[in-house]
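Our platform keeps sequence and structure together, in a single record for each protein. This encoding replaces a full spatial description with a residue-level series of whole-number codes. We quote a single record here, exactly as it is kept in our systems:
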Amino acid sequence: MSIQSGHCLCGAVRYEGKGARGRIHVCHCTDCRRWSGGPSFNVGFANGIDIAGLGQVTWFRSSDWAERGSCRSCGSTLFYRLLDDPASINVSVGSLDDATGIGEIEEHIFIDSKPDYYDLTGGAPRLTGAEVFARFAGEADEGA
């Protein structure tokens, strides 16, 4: 099984992503931009992650459906997870020890929230907030 490591700025929180790494998802919502200072670039791992220094992670419930994990010591933005699937944690691309070969952006979400002061190139799909919520509602319907 493939393992990829990462950590916060001060090193108090370290993690290992297990299995295949997903492609980059970029979120342009207001919360992500406020949290990270710009769009949030995240990836997940097929077999989850193991976190060392979990006691140094502070979780903030940022919406009715998700929470974000940061280092208590240095404040690095590290993790994002949905409340209904807390084992499925996405990591901030910037926290990876080696992002070589990470590939292209798979999609942009909340593109309708993106401010006009930046733009990203490429042909990845760009979903509005309404389209993202419709996707999650469809997945919930399928699982019922």
